[in-house]
Design a protein that fits this description.
heterodimer, A: 832 residues, alpha/beta, elongated, B: 121 residues, mainly beta, three-stranded antiparallel beta sheet, disordered C terminus, binds siroheme, binds flavin-adenine dinucleotide, binds iron/sulfur cluster, binds FE2/S2 (inorganic) cluster
């Protein structure tokens, strides 16, 4: 089958028209010929060259062939008979090697020279191969044509491990096929989200979960360093940048495609990323046309078939003397993995004046997102239920005005075209009493209404009394409609929700994180039906903190959800530089530390050195690029981060106490140091300050701190909820204890209670006022075991928290956060 | 791609949901953003409010919350959103075969808008 084949018999009578030569016997080339023949069957005498030794088949169906759902015979588009019947000469298995535009001929690899009047280039794309060491080993394949599929099938027959590099459409279809054929598959994807070009974070996360549950290993953020081989040049594994090694009997590279433009470029045609064509698909040479993935039209290259059909139509119109013009295509994508419904179209990146309509149904694994601008659909991402994909795509392409059906749009065509349903309340009113409102808790419309009539006048009250919308929240809109229908204007507004992305309060979210064991930000957003695709600058940091607090040692901090100060471990200043505050335990320092601080101030040109109100020293005007270096110097002198920037423990202020002071009753300095050693580096809902004063004269101002200790002759008075900031609040006395150990345990317990209960960005003062001092006392002192249990949870969490973030950065961690991408110097600047 | 586009390296250098910076000698520093939705944008790294370094803000959707006073700036247009008013110049950017390109003239010619000029306008 690999020898060049030619069908040149059966040339029909009167067929001596213009000579059309087509390079590329693929989807676009053959379709173009079909379209031309349909318009004028006799105008051209046609020769098609194909590099592949076979007739034209449906390339997109290679995935089902690999998965065993189809055979090659099933996917042939143009059989040998078709070429015959239409008098087409097919030269297959013999690629064109050169174009001679002057003499208007092409020459094939085997030396065959064919003259043309018009030439059509339809060479498609070449798979992109990342040039890592080992990319040319035996067993490294791409996924483009039938030969590739044959290689994969041969490998699958021997079983073993497959690694697919690239988690895009092609890579995932390859992975699916190989895994159905019995191989153990690992997908290595560079980006944190699968199919990031087609899917947003939320849908990508769902897809990853589903594939993992089918037994595939998905490594996102995985950067391939090397493909390893045995002595005989056969692949044995893949090594990632982070050191991970994966066993592999076959490696499929599916990292992207490049338009195949070599021939055109050599022939001197205009080529940018693809072969440049006009609206009639004509290149810079009027005798040469081009179509398919190898072209660039209006600055766009395409990698899907739908645009090819439109191009072929325009091409055929032009080639038969009735030009109509191609104006570019809007594309949509579906993943051909059985059992996974996924659809994406248009622009879903959002933007000015863009609105998102998001619907999530966690129980059914459904996520839908529409992007709307000026009453038009701009983009759509559907996961789990793609039935309306084509309808949205149609609305989008036609640019139809959707203002009339906006409210019901997300529920799909059947619902929205009801017209009358545009008012969601009337739709709800029309529901029968036994219609189910809340799927999670099985609550009918009748029960919700009677619970509202029974006095539940707010969303929260309904959630509390009949549980409707209390679990995942997806029926919140329905419950709100019922409230409005039943009570009119008497609906009470509930407590503030976390932010505009959700109908849940901070408390609701924290409870559900524990109850449903939610362990990742996109998972919370999905399960709790966030109305935005990826949250906002206010809920992301809060969720990150709640997860960190709920799952110590397990949850991996999401740096991009943190405010810059906590990402760069320094305080940003008005001019974009940073301030650096090393920790001084309990306000104590030494000549050596002071010398190191002085040296660092000199070396990094600190523009100001100041003693802070928190008993330590602040270096101002440090550049973000210099931060790792200055930290490394301070580390070398034994100092660690002071977290002057964090929603975390700040300082433990102390006074001199019994060591020196003539009034001191206890070692307030020593206790302060012990407390700071115990509590530093913990993340909290807000910043947290502690002070220990040696006597009631209170020189450390302990009674305006989050936790304050006043030493007295008989022990320690413990105070909570103080604040010296915007609104001064004096502490409440919690209790009195006799030993240092008790003081430490109570401190740990109070902090943990605050960490587990308070809202993100709520300091202890407003928290104590909201909950009541008596509540705080009851939690800590009501049960004899409470202190030890809370303190134990705090200490457990601290095991994972107490690392000096400066040391990690000084050692090179997250270098990307501190360094510039590159630098541009205009004079010497080279263009690409 | 050839001609007036400046290749500033592979897309993988910028983690989604973050930004990185590109200083320009004699010009304005540029911030290049990679959103969680996989889009790339370039803006002068300076907030229209008081020149806060936008590259250090929290990226949400296709906007960034300025690290200094939390204005939300659109990455597509550079406009401040909501009640706030002001605009940061954007730099035309394109991604091709996994690399990021910036329009050279815009990189060299970028000027931040001073608050005075804004008020005068
Ligand atoms: C450096 C320092 C001022 C100084 O030069 O002394 C300071 C500087 C800032 N304070 Fe403060 N506060 C400093 C001690 C205080 C104190 C005094 C204290 O801790 O004993 C208070 C009152 C006590 C209290 O917190 O209850 C204080 C109450 C505030 C507040 C109001 C907090 C409140 O709950 O009302 C803010 C605003 C905020 O946190 O939202 C604030 C915020 C800030 C910020 C972080 C503003 C900002 O977001 O950029 C300032 C950062 C400057 C920088 O880059 O370093 N700072 N700030 C002090 C650092 C102490 C340290 O060593 O870590
Ligand atoms: C596994 C797989 C799954 C896909 N799934 C989908 C999908 O679900 N939806 C979708 O829209 N798209 C999908 N695609 C993409 C789709 O197949 C392409 O967009 C389409 O095939 C492009 O058509 P083309 O004619 O431009 O290129 P091709 O179909 O690649 O045809 C080009 C032909 O030209 C030949 N050729 C190249 N150089 C020469 C030469 N010098 N001389 C002679 N012949 C030459 C090549 O061998 C090839 O046969 C998929 C692709 C693959 C590989
Ligand atoms: S008092 Fe105001 S100006 Fe002074 S450091 Fe604190 S926040 Fe900044
Ligand atoms: S400088 Fe950006 S918000 Fe003030």
């Amino acid at each position: 089958m690999n020898a060049p084949t030619r069908f040149e018999e059966n040339r029909r009578e009167g067929d001596a028209g213009e000579k059309l030569v087509v390079i590329g016997n693929g989807m676009a080339g053959c379709r173009a010929v079909e379209e031309i023949l349909a318009r004028d069957a006799t105008r051209y005498s046609i020769t098609i060259f194909g590099a592949e030794p076979r007739v034209n088949y449906n390339r997109i169906m290679l995935s089902p062939v690999l998965a065993g759902e189809k055979t090659f015979e099933d996917i042939v588009i143009n059989s040998a008979q078709w070429y015959d019947d239409n008098g087409i000469t097919l030269v297959s298995g013999d690629p064109v090697a050169g174009i001679d535009r002057e003499n208007k001929t092409v020459v094939s690899r085997s030396g065959l020279t064919v003259p043309y009047d018009r030439l059509l280039i339809a060479t498609g794309s070449d798979p992109f191969i990342i040039p890592v060491p080992g990319h040319d080993l035996d067993g490294v394949v791409t996924f483009r044509d039938l030969d590739d599929v044959d290689k994969m099938l041969a490998a699958a027959q021997r079983g073993g491990d497959a690694v697919v590099i690239g988690g895009g459409l092609l890579g995932l279809e390859a992975a699916h096929g190989l895994s159905l054929r019995g191989m153990k598959v690992t997908v290595v994807h560079l980006m944190p989200t699968l199919m990031e070009r087609q899917l947003d974070e939320a849908a990508g996360w769902l897809l990853k979960q589903e594939l993992e549950s089918r037994g595939q290993t998905i490594l996102t953020g995985g950067n391939t360093k090397e493909i390893m081989g045995d002595g005989d040049g056969k692949v044995v594994g893949v090594q990632l940048e982070d050191g991970t090694a994966i066993k592999a009997d076959i490696v499929v590279m599916a990292v992207g495609i490049r338009p195949a433009t070599g021939l055109a470029k050599d022939a001197g045609l205009d080529v940018e990323r693809g072969i440049v064509v006009d609206d009639d698909m004509v290149t810079s040479d009027p005798a040469v046309m081009a179509v398919g993935e190898c072209v660039e039209h209006g600055g766009q290259c395409y990698g899907l078939v739908a645009p090819l059909w439109e191009m072929c139509r325009a091409l055929a119109d032009g080639a038969t003397g009735q030009p109509s013009g191609y104006t570019g295509s809007v594309t949509s994508t579906k993943l051909k993995v059985s059992g996974i419904d996924l659809f994406s179209a248009g622009d879903f990146s959002g933007g000015d004046g863009c609105e998102d309509i998001v619907m999530r149904d966690a129980a059914k694994g459904i996520y839908k997102r529409l992007v709307i601008q000026d009453d038009k659909v701009l983009g759509a991402v559907l996961y789990g239920d793609t039935a309306d994909g084509n309808w949205y795509f149609d609305l989008m392409r036609k640019g139809e005005d959707i203002s009339d059906i906006r409210e019901a749009l997300i529920f799909g065509q059947a619902f929205a075209s009801g017209g009358a349903l545009a008012d969601p309340n009337s739709a709800v009113a029309a529901l029968s009493d036994d219609a189910e409102i809340c799927g999670c808790n099985g609550v009918s419309k009748g029960s919700v209404v009677s619970c509202i009539q029974g006095g539940a006048g707010s969303l929260d009250a309904v959630r509390a009394s009949c549980k409707a919308s209390a679990s995942c929240g997806s029926c919140t809109g329905l419950v709100e409609s019922l409230l409005e229908l039943t009570l009119g204007d008497d609906v009470q507004s509930g407590p503030a929700t976390m932010c505009k992305c959700t109908s849940f309060t901070h408390d609701d979210v924290r409870e559900r994180i524990l109850e449903k064991e939610l362990k990742a930000i996109p998972q919370i957003m999905h399960e709790l039906h966030w109305t935005t695709p990826d949250g906002c600058a206010s809920c992301r940091p809060a969720l990150n903190y709640y997860l960190l607090c709920a799952w110590p040692g397990e949850y991996v901090d999401d740096q991009k959800s943190r405010f810059v100060n906590e990402r760069l471990h320094a305080n940003i200043q008005k001019d974009g530089t940073y301030s650096v505050v090393p920790r001084m335990w309990g306000g104590l320092t030494t000549p050596n530390e002071l010398r190191a601080i002085a040296d660092a101030a000199d070396k990094y040109s600190a523009r100001m050195v100041k003693v802070t109100g928190g008993q330590r020293i602040d270096l101002f005007g440090i550049r973000k690029e210099d931060l790792p270096a200055i930290w490394s110097d301070l580390n070398a002198a034994g100092m660690v981060s002071g977290h002057a920037y964090g929603k975390s423990l700040r300082t433990v202020k102390t006074c001199v106490g019994s060591q020196w002071c003539r009034f001191g009753t206890q070692d307030s300095t020593g206790l302060g140091v012990q407390i700071e050693r115990m509590t530093w580096a913990s993340w909290m809902p807000h910043k947290f300050k502690i002070a220990v004063s040696g006597c009631p004269r209170n020189c450390a101002e302990a009674t305006i701190k989050d936790f304050g200790i006043i030493c007295v002759d008989s022990g320690y008075e413990l105070h909570v909820g103080g604040n010296g900031g915007i609104k001064v609040r004096v502490t409440d006395l919690l209790c009195k204890v006799e030993t240092e150990q008790e003081a430490l345990d109570h401190c740990a317990a109070l902090i943990q209670l605050y960490r587990e209960d308070a809202y993100y960005l709520e300091r202890t003062a407003p928290w104590v006022e909201r909950k009541g001092v008596d509540w705080v006392k009851a939690q800590l002192l009501g049960d004899p075991d409470a202190i030890s249990q809370l303190a134990a949870r705090f200490r457990y969490s601290q095991k994972f928290m107490q690392h000096d973030p400066w040391a990690e950065r000084a050692a090179g961690d997250r270098d990307d956060l501190h360094s510039h991408l590159a630098e541009v110097r205009p004079l010497s600047m080279e263009t690409a | 791609m050839i001609g007036n586009w400046l290749d500033i390296g592979p897309t993988t250098q910028i983690e989604p949901g973050t930004a990185r910076t590109l200083p320009v000698a004699g010009g304005e520093e540029i911030a290049i953003f990679h959103t969680l939705r996989g889009e790339f944008y370039a803006l002068v790294n300076s907030c229209p409010h008081k020149q806060g370094p936008l590259s250090q803000g929290i990226v949400n959707g296709d906007a960034v919350a300025c690290p200094l006073h939390n204005w939300n700036i659109s990455l597509k247009t550079g406009e401040a959103q909501g009640e706030d008013e002001g605009c940061t110049p954007t730099i035309p950017l394109k991604v091709d075969a996994g690399r990021i390109y910036l329009l050279r003239d815009a990189v060299v010619g970028a000027r931040k808008v001073s608050p005075e000029a804004e008020e005068a306008a």
